[in-house]
Amino acid sequence: MPKSITIRDIPDDVYEKIKKQAELHHRSINSEVIVYLKMLAQSNRRDPDQVITHAKKLKQKAKGTLSMEEIQQAIDEGRP
After folding, report:
1. Could you tell me which of 6, 28, 8 has the C-alpha nearest to residue 19?
2. Does residue 62 carry a pLDDT above 80?
3. Residue 34: predicted pLDDT
4. Close Cβ partners of 29 (under 8 Å, ≥ 6 residues apart)
């Protein structure tokens, strides 16, 4: 069953932008906000902190496994 929420203290400029977008899309302001909330909820963006933590783990795992010479040799071998 659909739920209701109340949003207070929306800055005037934000409200006006939503209102204009709603008019462009021939929707009510409420419907426009629901569209934005759905897009946000379905977003596949990862949390930046999780990405950084994962990158640090990968860096630590790979640290010291290849010398610069070995890296350069692999690059050179991959070139035609």
Report:
1. 28
2. no
3. 96
4. 18, 19, 22
